Structure formats: structure tokens, C-alpha cells
TrEMBL record:
Pathway(s) the chain acts in: Amino-acid biosynthesis; L-threonine biosynthesis; L-threonine from L-aspartate: step 5/5
Protein family membership: Belongs to the threonine synthase family.
Protein name stated in the entry: Threonine synthase
Lyase is among the record's keywords: yes
Main EC class the enzyme belongs to: lyase
EC number annotated for this UniProt entry: 4.2.3.1
Reactions the enzyme catalyzes: O-phospho-L-homoserine + H2O = L-threonine + phosphate
NCBIfam families per the UniProt record, alphabetical: thrC (TIGR00260)
Length: 468
């Protein structure tokens, strides 16, 4: 745990930044994503000593090498205590055993019932801290396929000096997801429904970050998982689970329901830092670009098919660029050329050499029937009601062929009540919303519907944003 990295762009042509500036900036100026310039290392001995730590103390240990350029340990501890104090379970990310090999890690005990809270509660605290130290107005612009939006809004609603514009695909997210965003009426929150897909919304956000008319007027930042601080917060629970299931003296495998490749990349980061991980299952649904890429090198987009697991209905996985950067030997110029080609052609090929460097990842693809039967199986055998995203990863775990002596942790990324229509269809059980969500269906909603046109969205943001 010796080095305190600064952050460099995957496209090699943006200034390197400290942790605070990386967090506040989001996307790098050259269109790339920030990554640490090197991976901090933990020895086996250090890992063993970390087994007894509480979630918050473990978070401080795992994250402090990355944040040392901008926060001291006590400051980080205060922010982590506030963020994880809002979780309804003392263990923050508790493990539930299914059988001799399979475990669920419940990541949905935060305020908005999805794993995004683990990162976005902390990100809200980080924004608050850095803006207090260095007061200025910050405008967050993001796109959501459902869960990021509510978690991001919950993390910043009502905070000083921050305003948030959140784009979602109109009519393509669940009612619970929509209401969790649109019923937050704090004046610094603006929900925009785009008449298009999530990928359209995400492409618009990328364009906004590269639009001089916007960046010249507003100080904009990202909360999508392109923001490094989000991935950082997610690294912690891989350590948490592995250290409870015998690590570092036993390897543990994870199955991760994957969309933007952020969550599973955090697992990869944990492995780079010295945590013994046997395998990371990249579980996709039928929107399977990552499955094809890792299986036979075909990273090419096709149209998005809406499913009951909307947070995985993605074709372009932004964080995949972070992996490509490593597979290209951390060469920014090559990664940049590759990404520019991809942005033009909508496809690229991963060589077998690159795929063999990515052997920690095991791709899997789960269709709607398999997802439904897995929900039913978990309920009938273990009395566990799981959400569609979790079911996709659990199906992949059960069919992974990973040796039975290796504990296999499926990340349970959403509370089943968030997707209760789909859960009811498969299990006959309609999960109820936890009490802390309260009267979601009775509250007033506020949102703006805009056409799927870049100019309409940009003009709305410029017109509405408080320019301070
Ligand atoms: C966001 C999300 C995912 C996908 O995570 P990525 O980091 O985008 O790969 C999976 N499941 C749920 C419930 C989510 O909200």
C-alpha cells in the first residue's frame, strides 16, 4: 500500500489529476476516462489484518490509497460514516448463503434500493466536501437506464452549489424507478425524459461534455459510472465478501449482472490490488455485446431490446474502455485510436491475445426464460425473492462450471420490489416496498419530456441551469 496514484486518461491526451479533480470532472477532456496511474497493492498479510474491519473501516482502508492526494483518512472516514449510515442493514452489504457454494451479496439496502447507492451516497458526500472547500457551482448531467438516476438524485438533492439534470428513456424504466426520481421535488433536481433509448440519452450526455457552448458556461460533472469515484466505492464490497469467505487464503468468484461494465470493473480493480479472485462472471441478458466481445472478440453494437432487467439493456458499455486501456498495455494513443474507430464504425475486434489477457472474466448470457426460472428456483429452494438482474447473474453462476470448492458470490444488485411486476410474473409473489420508501405512489411527480434531439436537450439545460 505504498503508492498514492494520480489519475490519467485512457486516451492519453488530458492532464493527469488528483482525486478531487478527477471526482469533480468525470469525463477527461480528450474524451477518455480517468484511471489510476497504477494500482495500489495490498500484501497477503495486510489483507488478513483487514478481515475484522467493519464495512466503514474497510472502506477507509481500501479507498485511502486512492484518495490520499485530496483527503486525509479522518476526512474519508467522516464521509464514509455519513454515506453508509444511510443503509438499512448494519453490515451495509450483507451476504446470504444459498447452498454449499452459492451466496448472494445484497447490495440494495441503500435509500433507493439498488447497488448504485453504495457509490452514489459516497459521491454525494464527496461533492459536498470538495465544494465546501472550494466553493463553486456544479452542474451534474447524467443519463440513466433506471437505477443510477434515483441514486444520484438521492445523493445530491437539496445540497448547496450542486444542480442535477438526469436524462432517462421515456417509458422504458419501471414505474418505481421513475417515481423514485420524479417525486424528488428539490429545486436543484431536473428530470428529463427523452423520447429515445438509454443509449441515445447516454450519447447526448457524452456530447454535452464535449460541447464548448455548455462547458464554456457551466461547470459540468458526471455521476455515471464513467466517474472514477463511483467505481472506487464499489471496489470495497469485493474485499468485504472475499475476506468473509476465506480470502485471502482462499480464492472467491463473483457473478455480476452487467450493463455499463462499471460494477464488474470494480471487481477487476480489486484483483489488480492483490485480492485473490478466481473468476468474474460477466452476466449479460440478451443485450449481449460484452458476452460476444469476451467470448469471440466481436464488440459490435446492435439495437437494444427492452427486457425485464432494464439496467442491463445497454449496447455500448462505457467502462469497457477502462479494460481496453489495460489490455492495450495502458497505451493511451492506441486506446484512443481504437475508441475513435469504434465510435465511427460501431464495432471493433478484440484479438485473441487481448482476450487471453482478460481471462479473469468469464462471459455469460441469460435469456428471459432462464431469468424467470431462476427467480422461481431461488424462491422454491431457498425462499429468496430476487430481482431480474440478480436472477440473470445467479443463472450464470449456477451454470459457470466453477469448481465447487470456490465460493461463488452473486451480486444482488436491486431490491425485488423495484421490479415487482417482473418478480410477480415469475414467482407469483408481489414483493412490497420497504417501509422506508413510504408513499411513493401517492407523491407528486415532476419531469420534462423532450424529443430525441441533441439541441433540444442542450438548450433546455442551458436555459434552466442556475449559472451562479
Ligand atoms: C446499474 C445496474 C446494473 C449494471 O451495473 P453496471 O455497473 O452498469 O455494469 C445491474 N443491475 C442493477 C440493478 C443496476 O442498477
Amino acid at each position: 500500500m505504498q503508492n498514492h496514484p494520480s489519475y490519467i486518461s485512457t486516451r492519453g491526451d488530458a492532464p493527469s489529476l488528483n482525486f478531487a479533480d478527477t471526482t469533480m470532472t468525470g469525463l477527461a477532456r480528450d474524451g477518455g476516462l480517468y484511471v489510476p496511474e497504477s494500482w495500489p497493492q495490498f500484501s497477503t498479510e495486510e489483507l488478513r489484518e483487514m478481515r475484522s474491519l467493519s464495512y466503514v473501516e474497510l472502506a477507509v482502508r481500501v479507498m485511502s490509497p486512492f484518495t490520499a492526494s485530496s483527503l486525509d483518512e479522518d476526512e474519508l472516514r467522516i464521509l464514509c460514516t455519513a454515506a453508509y449510515g444511510r443503509f438499512s442493514h448494519d453490515a451495509v452489504t450483507p451476504l446470504v448463503q444459498l447452498d454449499g457454494q452459492n451466496w448472494l451479496m445484497e447490495l440494495f439496502h441503500g435509500p433507493t434500493l439498488a447497488f448504485k447507492d453504495v457509490a452514489l451516497q459516497l459521491l454525494g458526500e464527496l461533492f459536498g466536501h470538495f465544494l465546501q472547500k472550494n466553493p463553486k457551482k456544479l452542474t451534474i448531467v447524467g443519463a440513466t437506464s433506471g437505477d443510477t438516476g434515483s441514486a444520484a438524485i438521492d445523493g445530491v438533492a437539496g445540497r448547496d452549489n450542486v444542480e442535477i439534470f438526469m436524462l432517462h428513456p421515456h417509458g422504458r424504466i419501471s414505474e418505481v424507478q421513475r417515481r423514485q426520481m420524479t417525486t424528488i421535488l428539490a429545486p436543484n433536481v431536473h428530470n428529463i425524459a427523452i423520447e429515445g433509448s438509454f443509449d441515445d440519452a447516454q450519447a447526448m450526455v457524452k456530447r454535452i461534455f464535449n460541447d464548448g457552448d455548455v462547458t464554456g458556461t457551466l461547470n459540468i460533472s458526471a455521476v455515471n459510472s464513467i466517474n472514477w469515484a463511483r467505481l472506487l466505492a464499489q471496489i470495497v464490497y469485493y474485499f468485504y465478501a472475499a475476506l468473509r469467505l476465506g480470502g485471502p487464503d482462499r480464492k472467491v468468484a463473483f457473478s455480476v449482472p452487467t450493463g455499463n461494465f462499471g460494477d464488474v470493473f470494480a471487481g477487476y480493480a480489486a484483483a489488480q490490488m492483490g485480492l485473490p479472485i478466481e473468476r468474474l462472471i460477466v452476466a449479460t441478458n440478451i443485450n449481449d455485446i460484452l458476452y460476444r466481445a469476451l467470448k469471440n472478440g466481436d464488440y459490435s453494437t446492435s439495437t437494444v431490446t427492452p427486457t425485464d432487467a432494464p439496467s442491463m439493456d445497454i449496447q455500448v458499455s462505457s467502462n469497457f474502455e477502462r479494460l481496453l486501456f489495460d489490455l492495450e498495455g495502458r497505451d493511451g494513443a492506441t486506446t484512443s485510436a481504437r475508441m475513435k474507430w469504434f465510435e465511427k464504425m460501431n464495432k471493433m475486434v478484440l484479438s485473441s491475445d487481448m482476450r487471453s489477457k482478460a481471462a479473469l472474466f468469464q462471459p455469460a448470457r441469460t435469456d428471459a426464460n432462464e431469468m424467470q426460472s431462476t427467480m422461481l428456483w431461488a424462491y422454491e429452494h431457498y425462499g429468496q425473492i430476487i430481482d431480474p438482474h440478480t436472477a440473470i447473474a445467479l443463472h450464470a453462476a449456477r451454470h459457470s462450471g466453477i469448481e465447487s470448492g470456490v465460493p461463488l458470490v452473486t451480486l444482488a444488485t436491486a431490491h425485488p420490489a423495484k421490479f415487482r411486476d417482473a418478480v410477480e410474473k415469475s414467482t407469483g409473489i408481489r414483493p412490497s416496498l420497504p417501509k422506508r420508501i413510504g408513499n411513493l405512489f401517492d407523491r407528486e411527480e415532476r419531469l420534462t419530456i423532450l424529443p430525441n434531439e441533441y439541441e433540444a436537450v442542450r438548450d433546455f439545460i442551458l436555459k434552466t441551469a442556475d449559472q451562479g
